[in-house]
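Now read these lines:
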Amino acid sequence: MKIYLVDFENVKSKGLEGVDKLSETDSVIIFFSENSDTLSFEMHQKVLSSKADIEYFKVSVGGKNALDFQLSTLLGYMVAKETYSHIFVISNDKGFDFLHAFWGGSYIDTPKTHVYRTKTISGAIEYVINESSNRKAEASAAPEEEVNDAAPRKTQQSAGDSTAEEKNEAPARPRSSSRRSQDFDTTFKGLLKSACDENSYGIVKELFIHSQTKEEFHNALAKEYKQDGTEIYKAVKSRYIKLKEKLEKELENAAVPQHEHTNDKLDEILSQSCPAESIQRIRKCIESTASKKELYISMVKEFQKKKGCEYYNIIKPYYSEIAQKVRENQ
């Protein structure tokens, strides 16, 4: 996923060249002010035809370089979130090149996100293409370099030369990072933390799981939470596709090793009442509880009261049999 932060005050409509070539996984934020709020008709048509997620951000003016500061602040926040593989600043202002130098330098741990400035969106697209070509070229050349490097090292060692440690040369150290890959629930809750209260998490999660597209998720939230649904959607939308991939992968990993037989009692009684991913979550609730009371509490917490009670009441008559089978398969 890539995002393009457009300094519209600086590049005008020309900077948006290439916006119609972006994909649905790309995002664009157009920073403008009262001094630069005119978009050409031709570019307006291209923006409308773009598959990318496009937002307009009106900058609060009143001081010199107000737009630059606000854009840079948002960029730093996005780098820390590690949502995007690339963040492009679209501007003719070479001052933004310092952001590339900073985030690619040694002052802090180098992030996963690549920051770069180009004059147009089409220039950013070309940059990515060239970057990909360079990586492929380096990968194909790597084996030859390793072979060439191997011979002199072997000769030196056979001659009794000192090792790297004896020469006080530190061996190559992998990049350390305090950022660790988080599971779906942790990531999802983190995104929703400032958008809704904890009691709404289960409902929002259900709506997310059952949605197939961003639009479907947005509509479901609007129906459930009215205007507040839009704020919840904004907190999640930039990560929607990645979250779907993460959830799908976690469910696959959880289902395959632990449960070789899918046609057990739990699947049998719930298959007509809830989707496969919900059955997997119910299975986890059963695995982590030791009584009907604990299961009830766990399911209400996982699915909220309405759905949790509905699923629990279906399971309740068969609890002993199901619990025994599930724990045998742990």
